[in-house]
Amino acid sequence: MYRKFLNARNPLRLLEKGLHGGLGGGNLGIVIAGPGVGKTAFLVGVALDELMRGGSVLHVCVDHPVSHVRAHYDTVFEELASSTHLEDEAGVHIDLDRHRRIRVYPPETFTPAKLREAIALETETGSPPSLVILEGLDLDSVRYNDLVDFKGLARKLDVEFWLSATSAEERVGSVPERIEAFGDLVSVILALEPGKDAVALRALKDHENPDLTALHLALDPRTLLLIRS
Hints:
single chain; alpha/beta; Rossmann fold; nine-stranded mixed sheet
């Protein structure tokens, strides 16, 4: 299967439909789940989808080394290529790696200024990101003004900006208070919830839409791929 057809059939098209068009450029999204449930796999899936569409991705992580993040990309890509019989797997892999940057910071040193510097560097080298992922940030200690900065960057670059948040509970019944405090700065909030055979994806916030429709998406814990549910 050629990458353009593979991209068109990606289950993330269901997410875009369920979220009335997806996250959208200039917006912040957060995915919430318990430890080890699949936040990184979900974010890598979003990133690979953007890369397959010809975009550029900046993946920033503050809780894992570069090797850990890169290994997730390699695992998810290999499963995707194998399950879809992707044409020219090696060539596509090289092309995707060329348009993806991974930056890691110790939690105590990361600031919005560091992110701005990273984006400026990528832009100077001719690869401004079309998607930014910020993984592992402790949202309990993040200031409101930090989210204002992230939102400003997303709008300035017209990029989708995804963050992750760890929940103390296995099932996230509603938007946690610490995230609710960010108010209108966050447009989309998703929860990953483990089930018997798959990890369900559920919308807790969909822009200003009061009707949170079923997304019909799940994460396969064996392959780490998004699947239709």
